[in-house]
Amino acid sequence: MLNKYAMAAIAMFGFLNVTAQSNKTIVINPDKIIAQVNPAMWGVFFEDINMGADGGIYAELIKNRSFEFYKPLMGWTKKGTKLKEGDLLILNRQEKDSNNPRFLRVSSRGSSKVDLCITNEGFRGIGIKKGLSYDFSVFYRQSSSGVKLHAELTDSTGKVVGSTVLVPDKADGNWSRQSVTFIANETIEKGRFNLWFEGTGQIDLDIISLFPGDTWKKRKGGLRGDMVQLLADMKPGFIRFPGGCIVEGHELSTRYQWKKTVGPVENRKLIVNRWNTEFAHRAAPDYYQTFGLGFYEYFQLSEDIGAEPLPILNCGMACQFNTAELVPLDELEPYIQDALDLVEFANGDVTSRWGKVRAEMGHPAPFNLKMMGIGNENWGPQYLERLALFTKAMKERYPQIKLINSSGTDPVGERFDLLNTSLRKMKADVIDEHYYRAPEWFLSNAARYDSYDRTGSKVFAGEYAAHSAGVAVVTNKNNWRSAIAEAAFMTGLERNAAVVQMASYAPLFANVDAWQWAPDMIWVDNLKIYGTPNYYVQKLYSLNKGTDVVDIHEDNKVIAGKDSIYASAVTDKTTNELIIKVVNASSSAQVRDISLAGSKKMAAKGKLVQMQNSDLEAANSFDNAIKLSPKEQVLKIKNNRISMDMQPYSFNVIRVPLK
Ligand code: AHR
């Protein structure tokens, strides 16, 4: 698979100095259109890994809010001078409510906090912002009034930085929900939440919840605003959700089942997150999926930020790295029905069964679903035979829905070869390729798709990232070494837009205190966020995707690693601009003239947006969030020719109006 420059590129990357040379010319012909760019070409991959959903973008601040973790009081501590055995009991109404069986029964005799109090530690602490409002809500049941609930936010020493009192107004023996809003008066990164009880009596509590007031679009019970904003800023073409291996489950019983993630939040049955103990060295036994971020919210998020929804569904196989459980072929029907019903949920009329569910959740208009993945990293003949049944049913009922098929875990090897060959024979719409590889692999594979058949199945680069230290090892860094290698590789994706129709870096989010997998595109703590250099590379591609790929070459050859230079070009017919992407992956500046062939001319002024750092280990951080980020400058163009002195280790995006 190595192209003929591969060895040179590998050698140069970080080790070899290339002497700057002049009189080399990159020639672009904007008249020569090679391919159309799919408007949804550059997207994002979302998975609830690294506390990306619960403890991440789903803004709930209370961990184990409904006492359903395997230890019912995980995340909670109880204290109080009047606390006696039996004062705080976990009850289980399994028969009456199997989705949300447990609740807390409180018997109070308190008059102050020291008497009886429960404290929640949040997801590695609770981020508290001075001046921000917080919505506290709870489901309760009591037969007579008498107990008031005091909700407090505190710092780690217990100092109160915001509080409120909730006086339950019903006492009819039925479950009710009540909420109250209060303001915090200090900023604390790792705060806590107290709930203490005043008065004498018994009260049952469930779904004790706290959301910040600055959620995305200020939606109650919504998503973390700063995290969605970084996605929105990228203008991604699609959102792939909910994963990833989480689709498959460790075993079939813990697979992702979208129907269990829609409807009222309190009815969504929580399950363990498959990443909680997957990596022994990064175990997170308190990692669960509440599905507060469920399929409705994924569709809504996609719509909010102008991205096509791309759901991936289980194909009747559990993760083949784990149990590898299979659904017998003659029992696959409910899985296939889930896929068909998802189209109805997303697009169906409000009178249809699942369209009605969507409408009742607040979205009568369709979500306009156009594509769906069947299986994540599944492989083998078992995958092919299950996929065939899904495909037949889907194409019969919804022929317009494009199906994404898996090519397994790796971009080469026996598994890949079997699937790639078979899927192409089956005339797969789109084949999902994954590559978590060393930066050098990305450099040496920039020409990977140049030889792919233009007329057959299309490719979705559905998960990829350059791993600087080894696949998924804890020492991987989101450094410039990995990001510039991805930028170089992506010139090859862009050049081959006739084949590669979508691409997404993976994974998307990581909580600094609770991650399992690195590298990741965006890192958060309880209060802050930063995009990695890899994020900015993705963003640059997405914001500069253009509409048509045009011919670009040097010495009549594609530019895919010779002298460590990688380049691609697109035009944007809506703005009549030429957009050139050039990566210099060598340690020396390199001089190139860029000139045009064909009928078009460049305007006298354009702009250069550049990411550059001479230190390949350089990275962003909370304290220096934009150290590696695009910097813009004016570019003067003389006589239809750009003279580029390309900085060492630089990714350059040039935008020039055409005449
Ligand atoms: O992105 C992390 C994991 O990598 C995904 O869940 C899986 O599809 C891949 O192996």
What shape does the CA trace take? globular
Q: Which parts are unreliable, with pLDDT below 50 for 5 consecutive residues or more?
A: 1-21
* CATH uppermost class of the largest domain: Alpha Beta
Number of strands: 32
Helix content: 10-25%
Let me know the CATH homologous superfamily of the largest domain. Answer: Glycosidases
| Computed structural class | alpha/beta
Question: How many distinct helices?
Answer: 10
CATH architecture of the largest domain: Alpha-Beta Barrel
What Rg is obtained from the alpha carbons, in whole angstroms? 27 Å
Number of domains: 3
First and last CA, distance: 40 Å
Briefly note the CATH topology name of the largest domain.
TIM Barrel
Biggest sheet, in brief? 10 strands, antiparallel
Strand content: 25-35%
Ligand inventory:
alpha-L-arabinofuranose
Summed over residues and divided by their number, the pLDDT gives a mean of 95
